[in-house]
Amino acid sequence: METMRDRFAPVVTRLLDEDPRVAVVLAEIGTDAFTEAVRRHPDRVVNVGIREQLLVGAAAGMALTGLRPVVHTFASFLVERPFEQVKLDLGHQDAGAVLVSAAASFDWPAGGYTHMAPGDVALLDTLDGWTVHVPGHPDEAETLVRHAVAAGDDKVYVRLSLQANAHPLPVDGERLRTVREGRAGVVVAVGPLLDAVLAATEGLDVAVLYATTVRPFDAAALRRATEAAGTDVVLVEPYLAGTSVAAANDALSDVPHRVLGLGVGRRELRRYGRLEEHVAAHGLDARSLRERIGAFTGAGAPLRPRPPSTVPDRAMAH
């Protein structure tokens, strides 16, 4: 199956053809995918080398001249390493850009902890005015990248992942989508975790909402869902557990409610393992999710307990 990142470069190359404002800024990672774009638009595709602070700073400079820069590298190098530049060069100067990351929370376990970024969305939450898209399928990634580039001069983060759902859903860059109705609680599945959530909640009397845009958070849709399904809310996010709990609490601040935030744990897993093993170790596989969602909402009996998931003893990540 084509990955979100496979789709990204061809889409942005077409955007370079279509819109003279669009520019691309890279830091070595992903340059091979933009060979044709460099040939066709050498003045608007820039590789700054392994200099992530410059990556964001150069994009901010382009934005201040009227361009719409699309900035790409691994999430840990795009949000965490140059965070001061994201905060000041973009935020403080009110300069817009489209940051498109790869590797998500742990897409490349062999790269070690330096290439993992489960805290990226939570970190951007400390800043004002960011839109955050988390597609769950390559088709959705294409739609949301196009939406982000067309979003005037806004600050937008698009989080690409190797994890993906089997089928895309229509997305509009704004609203939560109701996928399943229920009466014993609401489960919000973010991006590539929708399939696991649907499998986990099969037969449980809970509503399932699908989120591919998590900032701004669609408070109105969550409120509507809780009116029918009750105010027990479970957030299932492919990044740091609890990242959107405050947003859900704010949405329901005037009614009694409970919120459970599921996602990537804070404990560092120091073995390579495989992507699927990291998913299971953080309790984001369908079986673990069913146990935790069922126990919290009371919508169904948990499955038989099993030993905690661990990442096998392979080569050390560092």
Domain count? 2
Total strands: the figure is 12
Going across the biggest sheet, name each strand in turn.
2-1-3-4-6-5-10
Calculate the mean pLDDT score and round it. 94
How much of the sequence lies in strands comes to: 15-25%
Main sheet summary? 7 strands, mixed
What name does the CATH topology of the largest domain carry?
Rossmann fold
Taking the alpha carbons of the first and last residues, their distance comes to 30 Å
Order of helices and strands: HEHEHEHHEHEHEEEHEEHEHEHH
CATH class of the largest domain: Alpha Beta
- The CATH architecture assignment of the largest domain turns out to be 3-Layer(aba) Sandwich
Pfam families: Transket_pyr
Domain Transketolase-like pyrimidine-binding: 2-167
Region (Disordered): 297-318
InterPro entries: PDH/Transketolase (IPR051157), THDP-binding (IPR029061), Transketo_C/PFOR_II (IPR009014), Transketolase-like_Pyr-bd (IPR005475)
Explain how this protein is built.
Helices cover 35% and strands 20% of the residues. It is α/β, with parallel strands linked by helices. Helix 2 links the parallel strand 1 and strand 2. The protein contains twelve helices and twelve strands. Strands 2-1-3-4-6-5-10 form a seven-stranded mixed β-sheet, sandwiched between helices. The chain has helices at 4-18, 35-40, 52-64, 75-80, 83-92, 120-124, 138-149, 194-200, 219-229, 245-251, 275-281, 286-297, and strands at residues 22-26, 45-47, 68-74, 97-102, 130-133, 155-159, 177-180, 186-190, 207-211, 213-215, 232-240, 258-264. It folds into two domains: 4-159, 3-Layer(aba) Sandwich (Rossmann fold); 177-297, Rossmann fold (3-Layer(aba) Sandwich). This is Transketolase family protein. Residues 2-167 form the Transketolase-like pyrimidine-binding domain. Pfam families: Transket_pyr (PF02779).
